[in-house]
Fold this sequence. Notes:
This protein is 26% helix and 21% strand. By secondary structure, the protein is α/β, with parallel strands linked by helices. It has two domains: 55-89, no CATH class; 98-365, Spore Coat Polysaccharide Biosynthesis Protein SpsA, Chain A (Alpha-Beta Complex), CATH 3.90.550.10. Strands 1, 2, 3, 4, 5, 6, 7, 8, 9, 10, 13, 14 and 15 form a 13-stranded mixed sheet that branches. A hairpin with a 6-residue loop joins strand 1 (4-9) and strand 2 (16-20). The two termini are 37 Å apart.
Amino acid sequence: MIALVLTFIPTALLSLRYLSDSSVKQEIKSETKYIEALGYEYQPQPKDKQSWLPKLISYGKSSWSVSELDSFSDESRNILKNDQDIAPQTLDPDNDSLLILTPVKNNAGHLTKYFELLDKLKYPRHKISIAFLVSDSTDNTQKLLIEAKQRYQELGPKKMRFKRFEIYRQDFFYSLPRHLRHYYDRQFDRRTMMARARNYLWTRALENEQWVLWIDGDLEHYSPNIVHDMKAYNKDVLVANCLIHKTGGPYKGKDIVYDLNSWQETPKSIEMVKKLKETDFLVEGGDTPFITHRKYMNDFGKNETIVPLDGVGGTFTLVKAHVHRSGVGFPAWLFQHQVETEGFAKLAKANGFGVFGLPNYNVLHTPE
């Protein structure tokens, strides 16, 4: 199937990139331009600004000892010499740059809070890029995002502008009533669709950023310092603990764990997995037929600041960009009995990356 790739930039110079699995007729004004910007231009860098290169590019200088040089093969030295030669024509990575990614569907009612929290974030604004994927929406989510882009990137003060503000559209024509979304027999289709949405978003939006932050579009609260705090751990994949305040039921008035997709395997869960059929799909919560025996974020002690995990959710997850660049995405197929974010964690670990959680660093989800 050939995907239709269009970018709409209205006269107000707002860019809305539209990707669709099927050809959809659009009413387009005559002054609309079609632009598809791919990647970025290479810009020459001064010779003294080549931080992307390994320190060994200076191997020809007398400051390097013979023993240090001997540890590299002739081929490795030739590769580094080649890197040194082309360094002035190579784009330097944007250190500490952050790409915030949020897939949204019918999210209009939560966007005010979303940007309110983003505005309180204590992180250099010029280092932040944000990108949204709008899927299968029937409300005015898309319209409000376009207006937000205009407000931040054109009409508002320059100090409030993001490095990039991107909006993409990818419809999957998948519909599921909200009250059915946690039913086990609907989970596989729902979660694989979400995996596809996430993959469309990160593969399209990621440029030369060094960090990727996945944020749900309907969070109620997170600390303004959370990005600095999470980055300080310097982990490949790190997830905060997402809670929800219950307004009714047996947990009324309490904050309980919302995202059960962040978990650690236990001896019992490992034994359980060994007995599964290859086609068995595991998901936490709801009416799942499997008792997984996994350890969730609320099962850790108050003194356990950071813990290794085997599954993660996507409510607030910080990822080093090189994890995605190495090919680790969100499986839309069963990988070790998991899909989407839990499958991402399993796939990351299978590729040698570390996956961790902060069981006592909380973000709060909007009450449902």
